């Protein structure tokens, strides 16, 4: 990966567009981003990270505030980065979410985040505009996530020392993100899941075996037991019980068979006696019955069958006759109500029809007359409504000119307020900012006074320390003397009387500490001076914007103008609406006047027609209300005459049919052998009664024949003989019960033996199949414990921790090579895979081996400069291992942010030589620092300096 060009606008402390050409910066392979503290050097690296991943490293990424506070509100925040990855050159343009002024009205609206990727060289695909798609494309090409990028390419300010001082848990989280060991976590989970599943299966099989044991005990009526030989003993006892039951069953079965034979003979005798006695009783009852009357009643009922339905038909015909009489009476009453008093019904009806036909032509004119009368009423009502609408339109048109003039004046005022809004807004902003700027000035002045006091005290302390050190310089030189080596002052190899250390003396370390404290106090003083100056400038700018106007008046004037400007759109819409309404009402008034004239003309014409037609119709209607009423009356009168004539004819026909049916019924009764119709009706019986008589006669005949046949069959049986059937039955029942009980006992014993034998076979098979499962589960359980850092795992390391420990060991080897060189052979990293205290997980311990003492010690005990060397070495080693692990992108660019101020000159030379070696193969290394000595060692390609409203960039190629 190689960066080419970075452009940013309204980002961080940069309010205006800035550009960084990395091709020029990295021409020598090593460049420096130099500037004062807080000038915005790290912001450039944040811009690179934001362009690639939409995030910035460290605590700055948690704040999520990337927009420049000094930028013009109309200028959008945007970062553009052009780079090459895997021979593909592309440009990423990204904007964060920020608030911008609304285009209409006051206030702000949120501008959503957006991103785009455009291919420049090496790829012909289409550009990408979705944020998620851009993120996936960048990670695919780089071969690493943003966490890995911040550890491999961009070593952020204060971040790469966290890994050195972190504990095992924190270090494990970071290594997991860098090396992507989630698959080993999946392996651990896979083994745990397999063990859980195998345990469930084994437990289910064990429970199945236990259930079989209980079923065996239940089938054998014994208590369950896990003792060896219990199953075989149960089977032996059941076999013995079957043999005993078989012997008892054979004995009782013989006795029961003999008793059954005796019982069968006794039952035959008892049945014959019963049949003879019942036959004699049945024959006596049959001979005593009155069977002759049954035969006579049945025959008479059969002869009366044809007479009954014919007689019933007479009633139906009589009912039809009565209906015809009632219909004739109703028709006569209806005709009388119409006022008819004649007798020639057919002739009078025809005459009335002819007269009604003559009135047919006038009926159409009568209908038109009614319609025209209704139309006159409608025209009168419509004319009234149109006149009212015309009055309302005149009233509205009178007031509209005044409303138009008033609305026009309000619109002009709103337009004028909109034009003045920008100038008034500037003064209002200045008025609102003035109190805060005044308070800020007072606060910064107080802070400046305090910073001056602190700096003066630190300066006094430094001078005092230097004075004491000069006074005790002999002691310091004497401490460096060694036996047989020449003195650095006089050159003598002998040292007869070296100066002795004094209690409370100071050395070079004390002077360095005092110098750093004095320098820090000086920087705080300068920062306070700049803050106070900036506060004075802000107050001056506020008063310049206000001019001679008071802040309260400026705020009130701005609020009034803003409120009036907001009504501009509403007033414009209202004015246009009033103009359109005026035009519409005028057009509607003209149309309404035309409609009124038409309605009045039509009404006058229709009145003349109605009066002329009404005279003709009055003459033709006679005594009736109108012609239609008279015509309807004539037609109804003719219809009633025809209907009365038809009803009279129907009544005469119904009477003739009744008399004809009565004669036919009398003839049928005579033919059936009855004296008259009443005798035939008396002999009639319902079909169910006739069927009952047939069944009674048939039953009588069957009973007599059956009794005679039984007495003839059992003629030799004496009905007075007795048989003791109850005693014989009791003896047979007792014998059969004993045999049945013995057979039941045998069946139960055999069933129990068969059931237990089957269950025993299943139990033996189940126990045999459990043996490999038990062994397999024991092996899986032990292996799962080892993989998850328990059981026989003496190091208490999970598989994932073991892999991370191996990666950490590679990092320690790679980092030790650089640390050993930069520390002049004193320090190297030591990796330990032993378990932690109290059996906690281990494998990720990382200490520092001090060759001066020959012992390892925690990294937290290193000094500031030593911590920087260790952190930088560890970060570079980690970068090498992660780059090899990702296996993908060639990393041509590396950034290191801050930390150089803790190094002395000699150590800085070693560190610079190490970083200079990273340029091999065309690699570009960028350093970010405010240390002045680095400016002398590296040509300053890019300098960042503060301006009054933010930070600016200066390109320098010298």
Automatic annotation (TrEMBL):
Q: What top-level branch of life does the organism fall under? A: Bacteria
Q: Does the keyword Coiled coil apply?
A: yes
| Pfam family, any one | AAA_23
Family to which the UniProt record says this protein belongs: Belongs to the SMC family. SbcC subfamily.
Recorded GO molecular functions are:
ATP hydrolysis activity; exonuclease activity
Gene Ontology terms describing biological process: double-strand break repair
Q: Which InterPro entries match?
A: P-loop_NTPase, Rad50/SbcC_AAA
Provenance organism: Lentzea jiangxiensis
Gene3D superfamilies (alphabetical): P-loop containing nucleotide triphosphate hydrolases
Protein name stated in the entry: Nuclease SbcCD subunit C
UniProt keyword terms in alphabetical order: Coiled coil, Exonuclease, Hydrolase, Nuclease
The residue ranges of the Rad50/SbcC-type AAA domain are 5-180
SUPFAM superfamilies attached here? P-loop containing nucleoside triphosphate hydrolases
- UniProt keyword annotation of Zinc present: no
Q: How does it assemble?
A: Heterodimer of SbcC and SbcD.
Q: Which stretches are annotated as coiled coil?
A: 414-461
């Amino acid at each position: 990966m190689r960066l080419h060009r970075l452009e940013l606008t309204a980002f961080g402390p940069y309010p205006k567009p800035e550009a960084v050409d990395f091709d020029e910066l990295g021409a020598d392979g090593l460049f420096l981003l130099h500037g004062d503290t807080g000038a915005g050097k790290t912001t450039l690296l944040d811009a690179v990270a934001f362009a690639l991943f939409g995030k910035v490293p460290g605590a700055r990424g948690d704040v999520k505030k990337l927009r420049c506070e000094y930028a013009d509100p109309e200028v959008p925040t945007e970062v553009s980065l052009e780079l090459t990855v895997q021979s593909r050159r592309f440009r990423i343009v990204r904007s964060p979410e920020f608030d911008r002024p609304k285009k209409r009205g006051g206030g702000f609206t949120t501008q959503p985040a957006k991103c785009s990727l455009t291919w420049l060289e090496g790829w012909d695909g289409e550009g990408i505009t979705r944020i998620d798609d851009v993120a996936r494309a960048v990670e695919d090409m780089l071969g690493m996530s943003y966490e890995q990028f911040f550890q491999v390419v961009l070593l952020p300010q204060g971040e790469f020392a966290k890994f050195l001082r972190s504990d095992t848990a924190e270090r494990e989280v970071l290594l997991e993100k860098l090396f992507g060991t989630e698959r080993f976590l999946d392996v651990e989970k896979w083994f745990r899941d397999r063990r859980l599943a195998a345990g469930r299966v084994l437990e289910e099989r064990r429970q199945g075996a236990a259930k079989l044991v209980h079923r065996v005990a239940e089938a054998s009526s014994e208590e369950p037991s896990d003792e060896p030989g219990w199953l075989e003993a149960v089977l032996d006892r059941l076999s013995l019980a079957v043999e005993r039951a078989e012997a008892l069953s054979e004995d009782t079965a013989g006795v029961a068979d003999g008793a059954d034979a005796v019982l069968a003979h006794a039952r035959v005798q008892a049945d014959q006696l019963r049949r003879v006695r019942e036959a004699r009783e049945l024959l006596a009852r049959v001979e005593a019955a009155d069977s002759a009357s049954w035969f006579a009643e049945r025959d008479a009922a059969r002869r009366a069958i044809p007479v009954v339905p014919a007689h019933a038909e007479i009633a139906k015909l009589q009912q039809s006759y009565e209906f015809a009489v009632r219909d004739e009476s109703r028709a006569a009453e209806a005709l009388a109500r119409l006022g008819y008093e004649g007798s020639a019904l057919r002739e009078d009806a025809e005459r009335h029809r002819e007269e009604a036909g003559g009135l047919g032509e006038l009926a159409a004119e009568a209908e038109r007359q009614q319609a025209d009368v209704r139309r006159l009423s409608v025209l009168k009502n419509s004319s009234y409504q149109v006149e009212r609408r015309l009055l309302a339109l005149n009233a509205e048109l009178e007031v509209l000119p005044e409303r138009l003039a008033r609305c026009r004046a309000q619109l002009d005022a709103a337009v004028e307020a909109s034009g003045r809004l920008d100038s008034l807004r500037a003064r209002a902003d200045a008025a609102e900012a003035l109190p805060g700027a005044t308070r800020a000035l007072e606060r910064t002045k107080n802070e400046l006074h305090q910073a001056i006091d602190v700096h003066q005290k630190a300066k006094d302390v430094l001078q005092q320390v230097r004075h004491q050190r000069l006074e005790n310089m002999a002691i310091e030189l004497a401490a460096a003397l060694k036996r047989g080596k020449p003195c650095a002052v006089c050159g003598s190899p002998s040292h007869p009387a070296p100066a002795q250390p004094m209690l409370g003396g100071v050395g070079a370390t004390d002077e360095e500490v005092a110098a750093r404290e004095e320098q820090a106090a000086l920087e705080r003083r300068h920062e306070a001076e700049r803050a106070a100056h900036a506060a004075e400038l802000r107050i001056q700018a506020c008063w310049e914007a206000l001019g001679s106007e008071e802040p309260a008046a400026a705020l009130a004037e701005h609020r009034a103008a803003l409120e009036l400007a907001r009504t501009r759109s509403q007033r414009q819409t209202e004015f246009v609406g009033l103009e359109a309404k005026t035009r519409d009402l005028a057009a509607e008034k003209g149309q309404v006047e035309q409609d009124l004239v038409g309605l009045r003309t039509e009404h006058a014409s229709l009145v003349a027609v109605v009066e002329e037609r009404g005279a003709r119709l009055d003459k033709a209607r006679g005594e009736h209300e109108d012609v239609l009423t008279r015509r309807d009356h004539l037609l109804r009168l003719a219809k009633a005459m025809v209907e009365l004539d038809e009803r009279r004819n129907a009544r005469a026909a119904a009477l003739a049919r009744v008399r004809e049916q009565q004669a036919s019924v009398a003839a049928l009764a005579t033919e059936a052998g009855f004296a008259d119709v009443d005798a035939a009706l008396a002999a009639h019986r319902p079909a169910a009664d006739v069927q009952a008589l047939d069944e009674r006669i048939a039953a009588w005949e069957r009973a007599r024949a059956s009794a005679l046949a039984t007495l003839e069959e059992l003629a030799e049986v004496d009905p007075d003989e007795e048989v003791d059937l109850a005693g014989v039955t009791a003896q047979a029942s007792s014998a059969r019960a004993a045999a049945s009980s013995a057979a039941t006992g045998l069946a139960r014993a055999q069933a129990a033996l068969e059931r237990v034998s089957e269950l025993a076979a299943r139990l033996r098979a189940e126990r045999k199949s459990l043996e490999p499962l038990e062994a397999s589960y024991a092996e899986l359980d032990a292996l799962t414990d080892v993989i998850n850092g328990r059981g026989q795992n003496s190091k208490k390391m999970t598989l994932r921790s073991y892999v991370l420990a191996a990666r950490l060991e590679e990092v320690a080897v790679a980092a030790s090579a650089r640390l050993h060189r930069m520390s002049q052979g004193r320090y190297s990293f030591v990796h330990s895979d032993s378990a932690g205290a109290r059996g906690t997980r281990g494998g990720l311990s990382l200490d520092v081996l001090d060759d001066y003492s020959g012992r390892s010690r925690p990294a937290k005990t290193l000094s500031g400069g030593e911590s920087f060397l260790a952190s930088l070495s560890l970060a570079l080693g980690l970068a090498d291992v992660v780059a090899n692990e990702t296996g993908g992108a060639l990393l041509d660019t590396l950034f290191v942010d801050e930390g150089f101020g803790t190094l002395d000159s000699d150590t800085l030379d070693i560190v610079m030589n190490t970083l200079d070696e990273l340029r091999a193969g065309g690699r570009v290394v960028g350093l970010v620092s405010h240390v002045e000595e680095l400016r002398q060692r590296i040509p300053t390609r890019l300098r960042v300096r503060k301006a009054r409203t933010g930070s600016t960039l200066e390109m320098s190629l010298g």
